[in-house]
Every structure is written in structure tokens, then in C-alpha cells.
Predict the 3D structure of the following.
Amino acid sequence: MDVRLGARLAGLRAERGWSLGELAERSGVSRSTLSRAERAEISPTASVLNRLCAVYGRTMSQLLSEVEAEPAALLRAADQPVWEDRASGFVRRSVSPPHNGLRGELVEARLAAGADIAYDRPPVPGLEQHVWVLDGALAVTVGDIEHHVDTGDCLRLRVWGPTRFRCAGRHDVRYVLAVVRP
């Protein structure tokens, strides 16, 4: 997966005719990190992927689906792509990978106890998200407002600026993220 992702990232940059330096300026990600990610020497973190998605105008699921085969109408649980950010303790399963003609997608996510991920901007401005906690407790900060979302609770938001997802309990939190592009 990292090799295919690295190749796709390099392809997106090449399609735009950008140097590593230009992409670094646009994304705020260092040239060395970009270079190592494109060569699959490292697996990019969720924050790095989010910054790149913002520059390329894609959601994370869209980008990850581009390195997978065209999704079928029925996607068996065993075939759902899983991506892991080991550094932050974030695991993401694309339950319904996006299709070019559709605006919505479902993602199952898990944050390890103590995990805390901050995104400086949404991958697509105005992105609508529904966060439904299946097990555990999650703190979601949107701008200056922190929402505590417990098991069974659902938070709906439209993302224009920074967000933060933090496991708010002593145990992992598992949640569904429904994403709808504007």
C-alpha cells in the first residue's frame, strides 16, 4: 500500500509540474518528508496526508481509493482497505470507498488510548462530517469548541478550519465517520 501511495503522490505532483520545493511550500510539509513518502521510505502520517489532500483537493478516502482497484457495488469486510498511522495510533478502514460519481463515504476509525490528531485544515473546505461513536469516548475540537462524544452519540459538523480528534477515555475509541463532499 505504501509503495502504491507513494507512486500516486509522486504522480499527482508531476501532473501539476511542481517540484518538491513547490509542493513543500503549498502544503507546509518538508521536502525530505515528501521525498521519503513518494519513495515509500516512510508511511505518511494522517496529518501529512491531510495537508497533501488539501493541496490536491481530495479527501483522504479519495486519495487512498486511487491506489486501490475500482470499488465494486458490494465491498466485503475482508476487502475493505485499512490504513494505519502507527505514529499517532490511528487506524482507518474505508467501509465504502468513494466513487467519482458519489459525494458520500463511510469510514470506520479507531484511535488508541491517548491518541491525539490535529488537522490544520480540511482536505476539502466545507466538508460535512458525521461522527458516530460506537465504543469509547472521543473529543472533537472544531475551531475553539470542543465536543465530547460518548458511545452512541453522533456529532454533525461542517469543516472549514482546524480540527482535532482525541481519544478522551482510558481505552481505544471506535467510531464511524460519514463524510459528504460539498
The mean pLDDT is 91. Residues 57 and 124 are 6 Å apart (CA to CA). Helices lie at 2-16, 20-27, 31-38, 46-56, 60-65.
